[in-house]
Amino acid sequence: MWTETDAEAARISALCDEDFHAELERRFGLHLGDIALAGPRRAYPLGLFIARSFVAERIALVGDAAHVIHPIAGQGLNMGLRDVAALAEAIVDAARLGLDIGGADVLDRYQRWRRFDTMAMGVATDGLNRLFSNRSDVLRLARDIGLGVVERLPMVKDFFIREAAGITGDVPKLLKGEALYTVNTLVDALNLCSLRAQLPFGLYDLDRVEPPIVLRRGTPGESYEGIRKAAVHVEGRPVLVDARGPFGNPTSDSARTMITTACRRALVIVYAPGRFPPARLQSVLDETTATLTRWSGGSECARQVLP
Ligand SMILES: Cc1cc2nc3c(=O)[nH]c(=O)nc-3n(C[C@H](O)[C@H](O)[C@H](O)COP(=O)(O)OP(=O)(O)OC[C@H]3O[C@@H](n4cnc5c(N)ncnc54)[C@H](O)[C@@H]3O)c2cc1C
Q1: Can you give the pTM of this predicted structure?
Q2: Which of 59, 79, 269, 285 has its CA at a distance of 20 to 30 angstroms from the CA of residue 143?
Q3: 82: CA distance to ligand 1 center in Å?
């Protein structure tokens, strides 16, 4: 990256190829070997612009729409990718909780996540540019000493490399190579119901369950394969059992009956203590039906309260 003052940039851009090449070699030296132009030259105005706010009503700015920094550290595109990853994560987290994905809270979370980091990077690159383009002998000496120190201290060098790679601080999942949570509206809507009611809920694919279904105490050695593959031991604990054996309890659902995107009929179990007020239980069931049908469609086909 060759940066110049506006006047010098205009003068150099207007040079013929031969003079331009001579100027380039004079400035860069020949330590990289012979330099040859590979294409047409282009000049871009450079500046530091950071939007006063990254968000407005139902709007979020990402990439260069939110910030334009000096390319001296090669960070512009990286910062834009970090914006996109942070915004995607904020949106998916909100969708899982059934919140409005364009709501002020969600956008605020994105802005808090990205704006400080952007300001810090903008100030750092602007400072670097001023340091490297300054002709003062004192500043040049300080800069050369600084670079020498960084080169000799692996920990300090490693810190700068990690900063430049964007892998410090609160790194969005996508940039860490992790997947965002997938949104299964039925599972997530049910988790929301469970949180609201403060009761454990179970959710099972009814087409993978073979009636009759009973709730009983687990027998010695009884277990089933949990959703994350580990065996769930249910001896002496409440367990749901169908014709094929145990398939769920208040804390773990089974791999056999788990909900997938292919599920068309679901069995919802609300585990409530015996002393739970019956009227309150009915309103929990009503709210659950309303929430599930609102987010996942369908309708309630049967309801039963077991003693
Ligand atoms: C000389 C230079 C070198 C750089 N080097 C690096 C580097 O080494 N590493 C790095 O990470 N970053 C670098 N950057 C920064 C990087 O290029 C930008 O940060 C990045 O391209 C921004 O991506 P963006 O998608 O946000 O915006 P842009 O790439 O600007 O994309 C915006 C697009 O929107 C289009 N558009 C604009 N207005 C309209 C409209 N009204 N209707 C329809 N389309 C429209 C534009 O034509 C453009 O295609 C450099 C920048 C410059 C100028």
Answers
A1: 0.67
A2: 79
A3: 15
